[in-house]
TrEMBL record:
Species per Swiss-Prot/TrEMBL record: Mucilaginibacter lappiensis
InterPro entries, A to Z: ClpP/crotonase-like_dom_sf (IPR029045), PDZ (IPR001478), PDZ_sf (IPR036034), Peptidase_S41A (IPR004447), Tail-specific_protease (IPR005151)
EC annotation from Swiss-Prot or TrEMBL: 3.4.21.102
Domain PDZ, residue spans: 93-172
Keyword Lyase carried by entry: no
Family: Belongs to the peptidase S41A family.
Protein name from the UniProt record: Carboxyl-terminal processing protease
Amino acid sequence: MKKLGMAINKRYKKIGLVAGIVLLAGGGLAFNDDLFQISKNLDVFASVYKEVNINYVDDINSAKLVKTGVDAMLDGLDPYTEFVPESEIEDYKMHYVSTQYGGIGSSIFARNGKVYVSDVFSGFPAQKADIHPGDQILKINDIDLTGKNNDQVSLLLKGSKGAPIKLLLKRDNTPQSFEKNLIRDEIKQPNVSYFGMVDGNMGYIKLDKFLENSAAEVTNALVTLKKSNPNGIILDLRSNGGGILQEAVKIVNLFVQKDVEVVSQKGKIKDKNFTYSTVNTPLEPNLPLVVLVNSHSASASEIVAGSLQDLDRAIIIGQRSYGKGLVQQTFNLPYNSLVKITIAKYYVPSGRCIQALDYTHRKDDGSVVKVADSLIHEFKTKNGRSVFDGSGIYPDIFIKQEKFANVTQALVGKLLIFDYATVYRDAHAKIAEPKEFSLSDADYGDFVKYLAGKNYSYTTTAEKVLSSLKTEATKEKQFNDIQSEYDILKSKLLTSKKNDLQQHKAEIKQVLENEIASRYYFERGRYETNFKYDKELAQAVKTMQDKAQLASILKGEGNYKVIGKPVLAMTGKKTSDKDSDDDQ
């Protein structure tokens, strides 16, 4: 029996060895096949490019041809995987790495073939030279700007630090054009565009992006705010599209103890898997903390909001975030070009990935759908609150986002708000401090008079519905039967429309005050004037002042035990208003 067993063992070992050799051979064949396919496809691509370049009937831009081909190849993956040719490297760095360049510190826009200053940034050459928003730029270094677009003009404004630049300008209330001679300075747009104290003695920090030094800027803001002994901190990440992941980790570390996991990334290649944890003693681990988010808060913003929510360190207020849970890495290519590739998905401390769109499983037509509710999973925060993956970061307190009325959008879009602010600035040497500034009824009356004869036509939703009704009734040959009622409704809508300037006076005043205040106090003016209208900010202050509610949310008591439960996971229960208001 012993010999038989030994024989059987030897036999199975031999079979196992043969199987192993076959598997290895199979793996080698698969690897070689992959290499062959890559080589084959590259050869085909190069051959097509060569033949087209040689034989096409017209001259072609070969660089553009290659970029079009590469872009088409990457288009089927996700919108974050992209090729950046040498000609676009500087723009890429400005967008993803650091907004630093030589210039005068202003932004511009083109209208009807003319170029105007739209904003001036405090402390830079344009502001020091008393250049105003609304000024028309006629020439830059004697180059006529007529017919030039934004990119062409921006290129002329930018240059090396210390280089002179001459502008020929025209101002509405000045009969003659005038020259300004400036010296370009290093323009570094801050990541933290504003910080200060708001109602309730709360510290407020507005972070616009996660580029180089964003964590250092938030740290400096927090250190300054702490000198005022704040009762809480509000970190505003609304419309922050993200940026550098490591900066997000550092910012979380300001509020969370050392050696705590913040985010992990997991991809196909094990070497790309990594867990990021806090490494320093926090600057402010105890003060009440609120993070504001909206549907445009993405990527690094969601890492900060999601990790602070998972760790039960902060209250999240606003709307559901965008849902970008993908990590990109750049790889250098020949001739100073590069490719940015999605290499992993990131996961916040509870283990959830907040990616909302499923790029891997597209429809037959190539369109992308959201992760199905049936595939969404439940996770637990540190204190046991239920949170869910696959759909962004859902706020602890949801605030429905209000949309401006059609008339307000028309006034902004037609630049009538901008133009009136220019007129107002020319007529008023100074205004009150931004937090106190408010347009009087007489001021608003002047604005209404200013609009007389101006074109700000717009179509209301009701008018669109009525027009659709006419179209469908005409198709079905029923319009004659309802025309009298149709005409009455149309007349009533027109009468109501004439009252829109009064009906929507509050929100029109809001955007007017915002634009006017920026003419005197720049970016600070925009923020501080708008504070009194900011519902999310008001809710943040109210929540941190209510210690009982603050504790209930973080402990997950009552309605706060489950955050953003998917519709299909409701097990027959009626969807709450909180869920139905989402994604408005």
